[in-house]
Amino acid sequence: MERGKYLDVYDEMVELATALYGWERAYPWLVKAQVEGHGWWQYLSSDDDVRRRWTIVLEHFQERWYDFLRDSLEEAGSARRWGLTLSHGMWVRLVQYILIMQQPVRAKHMIEEMVTGSLALVPLDNPENSTGVDS
User: Fold this and answer.
1) Nearest to 39 by CA among 100, 97, 106, 99
2) Shortest CA distance to 33 belongs to which of 47, 17, 49, 20?
3) Helices marked H in the chain
4) pTM
5) What is the pLDDT of residues 12-39, one digit of tens each?
6) I need a surface site. Which of 39, 74, 86, 123 has the fewest CB within 10 A?
7) CA-to-CA distance for 22 and 104, rounded, in angstroms?
8) What is the pLDDT of residue 8?
């Protein structure tokens, strides 16, 4: 095997670590699987893989659901050297995750913040004050 070669076996490492050492030792591998599998990006990852990881969080780390979210987002940012980043391409998965973790009030607040923040970036003038086409 070539040195530095990327292998996408993090989900399998979760299973192996669990079998050998238990769930607690598998947690870092679970985070790594989410990061390297682009789990927060709706169009870059498999729904099945993502749902399987979230089921593990729900069944074995329910009290740490927020830690998993934070840890995987922070690790993704540091691994790619651009820091913590949230993009509209992640919104669907983030909201789905929050709902699966049985946090509907937080999901509603998250959606409101996403919409408000996005609309703040677009200069929408009041049509009543508009004079027509810019000259």
Assistant:
1) 97
2) 49
3) 10-21, 23-36, 47-60, 65-79, 91-100, 104-120
4) 0.79
5) 999 999 999 999 999 999 999 999 888 8
6) 123
7) 30
8) 75
